[in-house]
Design brief:
alpha/beta; Rossmann fold; N-(1-d-carboxylethyl)-l-norvaline Dehydrogenase, domain 2; 2 domains; 12 helices; 13% strand
Length: 306
Amino acid sequence: MLSQKIVVLGTGTMAVGIAAGFIEAGMPLVVLGRSEEKAQSALSDALKLAQTLSAQALPSGVSQETGLMSAWDNWTSVAWVIETVSEDFVIKRALFEELDRRVPAHIPIGTNSSGFPISRLAEGLATRSRMFNAHYFMPAHLVPLVEVALGADSDAQLGEAVCELYRRAGKKPVLVRQDIPGLLANRIQHALMREALDLIDRGVASAQDVDTAVRYSFGFRYAAAGPVLQKEISGWDSMARASEEIYPSLSNTHQLARCVADKIAEGKTGMKAGAGFSEWSREQATKVRENYDQRLKAAFDVLKMK
């Protein structure tokens, strides 16, 4: 499988991060874009990023190619095609219609869409059984998880094969067997965020204290064990007793938290705007982002040693 090509469609930030991961894993890669210039630039950036993922030199003799998305047609030895184009349904749907016609039917095709279900993108297409969501998390070259989601007509056995490809590439894939909003990780993340923001809204804790509570309690433990394994360790009986008291009081609102809605109305959308729950100078934002990337890289390095 490592000798087979990966085709990445797109030249943006996600495409570069995804491509870097495959390059670092020693897989032959093809980057396709709307222009040869953009494809070459994306591949160059991916190569630089891949160098940061390992203290060792990148595998030698592994081919990397670029080309025009509309013209490239060499599907020999291709194992996986993943598109990362703009998050626009019309654009993605048109691309999937083209891929349905052009890509040999035995080659699986994925989308990195964070908003559009693969069932909808592939609806009515002749080869929709080989189409999947393959959802990465930013930064794609560092965050290990890839959610491989089945659509209504996706072949589950082929989905397992895509997961195995990702394992060979050093990722941590999960097979999501239902094409539901948010897939797996984002549903869990949003459930946590809803409760966290509700606590801020009710004046129970500040935004900074919420972050501290998560990072240095169960968030700290989650780096070593997920929520299910952690309760296997500590015992489900104690969790069940606590749930009787806590569950009835948890937020179940269907509306955006007032504290966030107010921030957005004020234009305080986070670091990019210079303010969110905190004020951010350009220097402060740069320092925090660099620190964030360094922490992720340290965690990535530890994971690779296992």
